[in-house]
Design goal:
about 325 residues; mainly alpha; Farnesyl Diphosphate Synthase; 13 helices
């Protein structure tokens, strides 16, 4: 779980990014904690917390909240919000942890990830596996018992698609980013289904917005860290597209597709004219950054596109919630 895909390093990517095509790509994991200043038990707890990537999963919880807020109407529905957010956060933490168990040998090869808890030996792969599976079970159980089975199924699908599909595909195909964007786009759908216990066009609209946003966002990240990805053997598109021509085309195409996708909430009477106007302005501004990055194919413009993406999404979603229709 992106996704979106958390946003530290450059304007804090792990605080806002996706779970999905490895939002941790900009996480500065190459700095070990100050072990001398902490008791051993506290250090161990901090290491397990680090495995769960709480900053990265902030976006997961935030987009789940958006999916919930745009459709919840009465106090009985709003009472479902805390267990929905807790269950979703546990599923996201499980996906992050299990991903690191799978990739810990590769993490040791990359500068940005070599100081993570497992590569450094601070946590064993076996202990991390137990931790990740426990989080997954707790997340699924809390959603089944306190929310509804459909939301729990989608939470489980998020974990499975991220860990068992996206994670191994990163070393096999450049399409991994597309696959990884699927679990990153599911959290707002979970917010929707928590209220309705069913899917609908509104859930499709939320999924489309998050899915399409992730593509230029994470392609920009992949440009910035293509050497690190190559060192780990990951087949991100920029690693196999030296001139960045194919990467640039995808950035522009997905940014273009994002604009009409953001109109869907207004077309479905989920939001009003204020949101629609904001979607137009924000979409065109984001497209301008995408075009600049595609034209120059320079690291500087990729970084600007990344920064634009982490400004764009929270503003758009804030307008969506603020201008929701009754």
């Amino acid at each position: 779980m992106p996704p979106a895909t958390n946003l530290v390093d450059l304007a804090s990517p792990e605080a806002l990014a996706s779970t999905a095509a490895d939002p941790s790509a900009l996480a500065p994991d190459n700095v070990a904690p100050d072990s001398a200043a902490q008791p051993a038990v506290l250090r161990k707890i901090n290491d397990f917390v680090e495995l769960s990537k709480p900053r990265m999963n902030f976006l997961v919880v935030a987009t789940t909240l958006v999916g919930f807020a745009v459709t919840a109407r009465n106090s009985a529905e709003w009472r479902l919000l805390p267990p929905t957010l807790i269950g979703t956060a546990l599923c996201a933490a499980a996906a992050s942890t299990l991903n690191q168990v799978w990739e810990h040998r590769l993490d040791a090869l990359m500068a940005r990830t070599r100081m993570r808890p497992i590569p450094t030996g601070r946590i064993s792969p076996a202990d991390a596996l137990v931790f990740g599976l426990t989080l997954a079970l707790l997340g699924a159980a809390s959603l089944v018992l306190l929310v509804n089975p459909l939301t729990a199924i989608i939470g489980g699908l998020t974990i499975v698609s991220y860990v068992l599909l996206y994670t191994p595909l990163k070393r096999r195909t450049t399409l991994c980013t597309v696959v990884g964007a699927i679990p990153g786009a599911l959290p707002p759908v979970m917010g929707w289904t928590a209220v309705h216990n069913s899917l609908g066009l509104g859930a499709v609209a939320l999924f489309a917005i998050l899915f399409l946003w992730q593509m230029p966002h994470f392609l920009a990240i992949a440009i910035l860290y293509k050497n690190d990805y190559a060192a780990g053997g990951f087949r991100m598109l920029p690693c196999e597209d030296p001139g960045l021509h194919a990467t640039s085309r995808q950035i522009v195409l997905f940014s273009l597709a994002l604009i009409p996708a953001t109109f869907m909430p207004s077309m479905l009477a989920m939001a009003g004219s204020v949101y629609f106007g904001a979607a137009v302005v924000l979409g065109l501004a984001f497209l301008a950054f995408a075009l600049a990055a595609a034209r120059s194919r320079a690291r500087r413009d990729a970084r600007n596109l990344f920064l634009a993406s982490i400004v764009y999404l929270p503003i758009l979603l804030t307008f969506l919630v603020a201008d929701r229709l009754p």
